[in-house]
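Issue 218. Parser rejects a valid record. Input:
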Amino acid sequence: MRLKELRQERNISQLKLAMDLSMNQNTISRYETGEREADYKTLIKIADYFQVSIDYLLERTDNPKMN
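Output the parser choked on:
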């Protein structure tokens, strides 16, 4: 998942992202390291937050635009 890349490009800390998405910072960390996978609703929240498609977030495409 491109979560860490997207977060770092925008200079957002794990803690800020977690607070903005009403999550725990530890959960964000685990998503970034691959220790945990996001469920469907969480993927939507993250994609909407960064204004990218879920396919881009999951590295299924290099086009970040949502259709």
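Fixed in the parser; the record now loads. The CA atoms of residues 26 and 48 lie 20 Å apart.
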